Amino acid sequence: MDKQHYQFPMQTKDVCYQYEDAETNAVNHVSLGIEKGSFVAVLGHNGSGKSTLAKMMNALYLPTEGKVLVCGLDTSEEEQVWQVRRHAGMVFQNPDNQIVANVVREDVAFGLENLGVPQPEMIPRIDAALAAVRMTERASFAPHMLSGGQKQRVAVAGVLAMQPEVMILDEATAMLDPSGRADVLKTVRRLNRDEGMTVLWITHFMEEAAQADRVVVLDKGRVAMDGTPSEVFTKVEEIKKLGLDVPPMAELAMMLNRDGACLPDGILTVDDMVKELKQKLCRS
């Protein structure tokens, strides 16, 4: 597939989506541009519209109003749907729903077979995808022998083998334990950083969103906040009014500042906190 260059590989223009028999829009006049090579986290409480938005980005749902463009392709044009899905790969919450074969390598091959990729071309693509998620040694394993995090990495490999320009992960770590969540996030973050993969990461884990380049917060189908993690998570009270938590270190920094600590904005991780406290102790 020839890859073209767009400033916004994923873009929504005044998009709405309303479920049948619903009284209000699940996504309500959302306009977003996801820049090439960026890692964008989308947050929101249950019912905020974040999963609906993700499915529109992959043409699983078509907007009831507005337009969704994926690498310049209009998702509402029926003849473009398969091209859209070749450009934008999607990983879902439950890896068991995406794994269809009895052997890891065969599962990664499944999407390529559907695309009619010739066998000689398939083999190096499968090998590269498995290597990218560090599952080469388990290529001959049965998926049911894998941990949840490993299964999700196989699902990511299946998408990678199709060589999409963007990857959409719809709460892909929600069913995993903390170790599995960290494993999958680390894998996808590395693909984003090292290979320039554009990533839309739907999550309800604040510590995952804190590692993104940009955070978009949805509330009642609308964009409530949009900025860098530091810009968004320093607004602790505003975030909590939307029914969300903030990264623990951001909240701790706010509490310490109330007691006169004078810590700077942008503390989101334990490493950030340790660094700032060490500097304060050295100066005192």
Describe the structure.
With 284 residues, the protein is α/β, with parallel strands linked by helices. It has helices at 50-57, 81-87, 104-115, 119-132, 148-160, 178-195, 206-209, 229-233, 236-241, 248-258, 270-283; strands at 10-17, 27-34, 39-43, 65-70, 73-74, 88-91, 166-170, 198-202, 214-219, 222-227. Strand 4 and strand 5 (73-74) form a beta hairpin. The termini are far apart. The mean pLDDT is 91.
Write a brief caption for the model.
The chain is of the alpha/beta class and 284 residues long. It is 39% helix and 19% strand.
- Calculate Rg over CA atoms: 20 Å
Q: How much helix, percentage-wise, in residues?
A: 25-40%
Oligomer: single chain
How many helices? 11
Instruction: Estimate what percentage of residues fall within beta strands.
Output: 15-25%
Form type: globular
Number-wise, the strands total 10
Largest beta sheet: what is the strand line-up? 6-7-8-3-9-10
Distance from first to last alpha carbon: 59 Å
Mean pLDDT: 91
What class, by secondary structure content? alpha/beta
Task: Give, in order, the helices and strands.
Answer: EEEHEEHEHHHEHEHEEHHHH
Contiguous low-pLDDT stretches (5 residues minimum) are: none
Biggest pleated sheet: 6 strands, mixed
